[in-house]
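Issue 218. Parser rejects a valid record. Input:
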Amino acid sequence: MKRTLFLIAAWLGTAVAQAAAPLGAEFRVNGTTALDQQRPALARAGNGRFVIAWDSSEAGGAAGDVYARRYAADGTPLGAEFRVNSTTRNRQYAPRVAVDADGGFVAAWLSNAQHSVGLSLYARRYGADGVPLGPEFRVDRTGRATSAQFDVAMAPNGAFVVVWVDRDAIVGASLQARYVNAQRYTRDGWADGAPIAVYDSTLFQVRVPSVASDAAGNFVVAWFVGANSIWARRYDAAGRARGPGFRVSTAGDQVDRPRIAASAGGAFAIAWETGDEAFADTGVYLRAYNAAGHATMAPARVDRRMLRFPEIAFTNDTQLVVAAHGDAIYGQCWNVTGTALGGAFRVDASPTLHTPLLASVASDGGGQLLFAWQNFSVAAGRDIYARLFSRC
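Output the parser choked on:
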């Protein structure tokens, strides 16, 4: 009897720690291969449908457009790729995308010299059938100079929020971004109030804002503050702050590029990368919080094969997955109390190491995973790939 119980316990432990498994081969997303296809972003609805956006850039990045493609839950394309931006002058690039419960989505991107000299932030809404719900529209309307970092999150009912950083657009002002902003929108695409001043600093640079929404429309913003710290702040669905900003990373870390995700029930987690000149602590760290904003784990380093540009997604209220690249694209499942559910698993199937970069990850309502990334080959240049995986 003891031996039987031991074997059952060992089997259960193995099952809990088992990594997600691929549900088929990787597939190329972009149909056009003449130019470089890069910087993928993806979002997945609870019913499993998903959309992947990316930018298609000419050599040198002087011009380009944002494209997207829709898929059924099993990875079947729902039509061909389509251009998101209607203004094609200069360069449109670096999209982010968010989805509602039915598969309707919003894409946001950077546009170079569309409004005036410098960058502007634009967005466009689509229905679940892929039909545009109006023209593209400008998001950044603070009167300051927009920097090249932003994010977007959408609640299940279609209301969404865009966050970005900017700086004073006056002669003699610092060229470093000093402000973190958030603009809320109704499900019909109307701006819901004025931009929210999430954070501002007269001393430190801010960059890489990230935002996530729960099922009720409450949202959390995370961002980098120089010198070397990751901060976050919680808001309710009406845009009211749920307390002051708080520090996520610990003192002394060399940190950058935070990414945040939220569960339907309001738990949230933030992943970020670290690095120092001696490469003694180069990698990705993770910290999770409950819906009340209390940390449920100390910062923990994920698998050491995962080094740069983390992305994160919840699979349910207590589990999540982190994606990042090292010599390949990797994913690793965790619970919100700080326990890794097995080691990292490789996502891509590239025959050449160090060419897959910039992972993105999303989950459907049942916890099944989807990854997207860019890959480079001498023969084909840069292309966008994706792959479906089972739940953690």
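Fixed in the parser; the record now loads. The helical segments are 2-17.
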